[in-house]
## 1
Amino acid sequence: MLNQVRVLVLLLVVLLPAMLPVSANDDADGNSDGDGVAVGDSPTFELPLEFLGTIGGDIELGLLINTGNTEAHSIRINSELSHEMEYFRNKYQVYGRIQRSKVLNASTAQNDDVTTAKRYGITGQSNYKFLIGRQSLFGRGAYLYDMFGAFKVQSSLAVGYANRVYEMQANYIDLETGPGFAHQRSASGRTNTGLIWFLAFNMEQKIYQGSSFKQTFEGSVSLDGANSTFVSRSSLTSQLFDKLSMRFSFTARHNSRPEGDLKTMDTETAASLVYTF
């Protein structure tokens, strides 16, 4: 009986420390880190959420329907995404617009449903931030297809220097400039590829709670005397409730050397619903 008691006491002495909770002093001794991850010869690696940065953006949707003497319907979508990281600032934009209209066919005396507008494009840019200040180096790529525009296809690549000359909370002003090259295909199928100089101005300003004004200007100046392109977009966004807003925007696109009798300026005025995430 005495031997059994001795064995029981010995087991309690061995097992009791393992059953007790870990105290704060144990953390100080280096047995575990503050997140409860064991520290030893083979530590567990956990990727911090800060490494992924912050992601935000919005989706803009506009719809137009005409009935009666003029029958047409069009849909417009625009999405802008920003990804802010410790050393990189990335932004992406996807745009699309299509319009279908009823047009009288003289040979059949019937209204045919035809496409009267078709435009879509994508832009991506990444800025590498310097360790000190608001300066950065950027790389940018853009592609635009416009069925009835001055040029059916316009694409470009550019690299250069950027400077956030003003920043206060959500308000900012960015200036960007640098060399690149562009490829263009006109409505008749003629193509041109050459060097450009890219420049941009981006500004966003909060007007009052829930409302903001944004202005962007981008220019691709041809260095070999070909067509130069300038795009300006102004938008006013006002919050309706929660993450839903209303946006009024005006976009102007200027091509310096369109083909034939095509106009140099295309404009678009839109009112859209915006979902922010």
## 2
Amino acid sequence: MHDLVILTGASRGLGLAMARQLLAPGLVLLCLSRNGGEGLAELAVARRATLLHWPVDLAEPAPVADRLARWLGQLDAPSIASATLINNAGVIPRIAPLANCPPGELAQALRVGLEAPMQLTAAFLHATRTWVDSGWQGPRKVLNISSGLGRRPMAAQAPYCAAKAGMDHFTRCCALEEAQYPQGARLVSLAPGVVDTDMQGHLRAGDAGAFPDLQRFLDLKDRGLLSSPDEAASQVLGWLHRPDFGQEPVADVRQ
């Protein structure tokens, strides 16, 4: 038997770090991202793990969710020990007031950051529910990578903040739904802390005139308060394997 993990946004940053740490014998890792993560294929061979990559655009999530549902429906469920979906992909649009955010960037941020996780979660829960109905007894988990910015407002990033707030709340809703079923899936929307990724670099490059919080992000870097992607990935995956995973559907690794 093997464990199955589906991971979005695995080509860089936190997602790539999680993919590297997940690869292990007896695991099948399906990565959904525009590009394959650097060195992942070689690492999978070295660790005798199974790595699959679908080059997809999560700004158009409905076809991806449909493909995932069909793929899960064709798997041999009895050979799978556990099934996990990690929604990690996100997009930071232009750092500017909402009134100045181009419509295309606004739409992309919401599609990648909110619609895609909802579509993929719906597909995952529906497909794996049929496994359970057929007698499969493995655990099912959904881990949504959220952000403190989904819980604290910030000027010049309304689309990103809104996407993460929506992620938190749809996770709460799905957790209530799954709690009604025997062997319901467990879901958590987890803030990973402040991680030194390209996204942080994008924020630090903002215009102080349009981004009132710029100095805060510069200070975090200067004071060495950012976690490395590897450190954050270790904390996030550690949370995924906690025995109480899912008891609180919205959480923070710093709790």
## 3
Amino acid sequence: MKTLKNTLLVIGILLLTSQNSTAQDNITAPKYSQSNKGKFFVSWGGNRDTYSKSDITFTGDNYNFTLRDVKAEDKPKGWHIDYINPTRLTIPQTNLKIGYFINDKYYVAVGVDHMKYVMTQNQFVNVDGYISLNPNDPGAYHNGLYQNQPKQATWDFLMFEHTNGLNYVFAEFGRRDDISHLFKITNTDVFQINITGGAGGGVLYPKTNTTLLLKPRYDEFHVSGYGISATAGLNLTFFKHFFIQGDLKGGFINMSDIRTTNNSADRASQHFWFGQSIISFGSIFRI
């Protein structure tokens, strides 16, 4: 009888152990892509830009005038090796962003949008104000009192570019949502579709290339103002760690302190709306 009891006890233990092992086998390990909390991400890409018209005011010794409704455009490089050439990264229009997920959906990030802003040369603009340079100055033949007077923006009057560049250095708070289930994607560790959105703000740190009234240009980086922005995008993540993302970004830029010449008294100011379309490549990971 004792032997029978011991046998039954052993069988019972084996059955319980087997059931527990089977139950554990049936539990699916959570996918890496199901949780974002604690992950870092970094992305690098390129952009195309559009700008609203803006009034640009120029002040300095013996002049103070405003150009009305100035048109500008970007300066695209196209598909080029300069995007990945460390010695020429400031030549194309680029975007860098580094972020951290504080929970599964929300992240904080910092970044630099390297845009390019080029005033359309030879356009006609209305001018208000005055120019009263010393008669010996090369640009003195533009002297006069201007009252909403049309004038052509020729090279000897004004060349105005933020081409190295219109650098928007920002901080951003955003959100990412997995919408893979809408496309019946079950293994998001292989392929995942997300939508993203965020809002941010920061400073403008341009290197402005300006030739104003034939004066020597100022060619240094300078904090010139601030910007605010909002973005929305589509993120495609592959094999848990690599992604391609497309974003539409827009915002407002106010540059109240633009250096224009070697004379520190010479300044310009402007404000305008901007829009970007961005394609970037990146990685998401835990440390």
## 4
Amino acid sequence: MSAPSATALDRIPGWFWPADQRLFGWFLSADAPGDLLELGAYLGKSAVLIGDHLRPGETFTVCDLFESEAPDAANEAETTGSYSTLTRQRFEQNYLSVHDSLPEIVHGPTSVILNHVKADSCRFVHVDASHLYAHVKEDVLAARTVLRGDGIAAFDDYRSEHTPGVALAVWEAVAGLGLSPICVSSQKLYATWGDPVPVQRRLLAWLAATPELWHTTDILGERELVRINQRKKPPAPDGELSELGRLSAELRRTAADLKKTAAESRTTVQALKTATKEIGLVGPVVHRAVRWTRRRLTRR
């Protein structure tokens, strides 16, 4: 099955930016076998892309409350305030607009996911459910349980100002549960409980050949972390660089000429203003002299 087009994804409401779409595609295309899991689906934007990478013999499971009541008051307030338009019917309609069949759907809180997904069975888990610390902490532990040794976890909203609970739960797992970050985008952190170094090396090789994405590597103590984002404009191909340089030089020369012309124009305008002022001062004197001469001539 071909990847869902950008137009197909754009039609589905949600927060799933182009850089993360590219990263999901790269991680999900790895050769490692295993099932797929998404905790928190909203209206299906990311699920549609994940489902495109489902292979024969694998299972894709989606877990979400949808329109059901939350398990506690804080979670209920969160879902009512942020996801009032979410229903299972809308999710299914969006998913089936791209795929022929639905994933396995667990309609309930993510706390029940271990009753439906086996331990050590998944190669990729997307955690994007509640933003509340207590719930995210459970989701992190569930992801660790279901992931295979080299599996990848993607955590949404790990740094947003309105989701400090996610940040705390995720970085706690990095500090104390053996979670190793691989890379981050502006919205998601990608990590593994396996060895991140081989994955990072492959990722950097791919990024070097992917001009649409900008990246850099930060050193965090003994760790390395790749930061990635979408370029505003892709860099020009090598063959176009010399032409761009020539055009840039011409533009700089033209700008300098215009600046010089503008300066000369300002000088000319100032001279005209001065001359006009001087004429204005001399004019009355000349008129009085002419009238005086006329009167003298008339008397004679």
